[in-house]
Amino acid sequence: MIKLTSFAEVLAQLAITPSMPGLGAALSHCAQSIEYSLTGFPTQRGFLVRKLVGPFILRKFLRQGSMSHDLKAPIPGAPEIPPALPLSDGMARLNRAIEQFRSHSGALAPHFAFGDMSRQDYERLHAMHIADHLSSFP
Q1: Three-state secondary structure string covering the chain
Q2: Is 38 domain-assigned?
Q3: Each residue of 126-135: b (16+ CB within 10 Å) or e?
Q4: d(Cα 45, Cα 51) in Å, to the nearest integer?
Q5: Could you report the per-residue pLDDT of 49-62, keeping only the tens digit for each?
Q6: Band of the pLDDT at 98, cuts 50, 70, 90?
Q7: How far apart are CA 55 and CA 115, in angstroms?
Q8: How many domains does the structure of the chain reveal?
Q9: Does the reported pTM lie above 0.85?
Q10: Domain interval for residue 19
């Protein structure tokens, strides 16, 4: 299992991650999540999920420094990502999304399930999300 808690750790890990089928799509999916944290997610879970259940699960993930989720689940309402997306495309999109997040000075959008969170917690969540996907590749 790969553990990552910052974009610096993500970029270092990606530099040594070999190309594997499906990795481009997984990285593009992770980039989508980062992009939506800046612009707003297409759909939101219900109020109780975002205000009670989601924050509880988020605190658990942040405390343990890792997350586990359904790796095949798309972001609700997001456009489908082609499964055979080339690694170079997924990597480029993820790098752009990380740079956009780092340079973004405005408010961050509420997460579709976890609700509002700080910039630091969002970065940690995104890094753990990427680590969870990378851990699924041998």
Answers
A1: CCCCCCHHHHHHHHHCCCCCCCHHHHHHHHHHHHHHHHHCCCCCCCHHHHHHHHHHHHHHHHHHCCCCCCCCCCCCCCCCCCCCCCHHHHHHHHHHHHHHHHHCCCCCCCECCCECCCHHHHHHHHHHHHHHHHHCCC
A2: yes
A3: bbbbbbbbbe
A4: 10
A5: 999 999 999 999 99
A6: very high
A7: 7
A8: 1
A9: yes
A10: 7-135
32: tokens are 């989508």
> Token digits for 5?
């808690």
> ∠28-32-35 over CA atoms, to 5°?
130
Q: How far apart, in whole angstroms, are the C-alpha atoms of residue 114 and residue 108?
A: 13
Within a domain: 2: no
Contact indicator for 90, 27 with CB cutoff of 8 Å: yes
Tell me whether residue 1 is in a domain.
Answer: no
Residues above pLDDT 90, as percent of the chain: 98
